[in-house]
Fold this sequence. Notes:
This protein is mainly alpha-helical. The chain has 4 helices and 3 strands. It has a 3-stranded antiparallel β-sheet with strand order 1-3-2.
Amino acid sequence: MKRPADAHDELASLIERELVAAARRIAEAIVSEYLGTNGAQPSPMSGARSLGPKLLLDASEAAELLGVHRSTIREMWTASELRFIRIGRGRKVTRTELERFIAEREARPRTHRVQALH
C-alpha cells in the first residue's frame, strides 16, 4: 500500500508533466501563429530571414484575414470605413487598423432590418 506522501508526490509529478505538456502546446501554437497559418519558414539556404508578421497588408491579405473578398476591402477603403496607407500607387492596411475596424463593429448595437411586404 502506498503511503500518503508517495501518493502526493506521484500526483504532483503527474500535474507537473501535464502542465509542461500544456505549456509546450501553447508555445507551439503561438509560434505557429507568429510564423503564419501554415508554419512555413524561409529556407536557411535562401538567405531570407523571418521578420515576423507583416506590418502592412494588401487588399488580398486583409481580405483573407477578415474572411471577405478583396473587392470588399477596396470598397471599404473607398467608403473610408477602413483606413489605408498609400505606398506608390498601391494601398496597404495595418493589422492594427483591421483590429480597430473589428472592435468598432463589435461595439455597435445590432440593428435588425425589417422589410415591408408590398
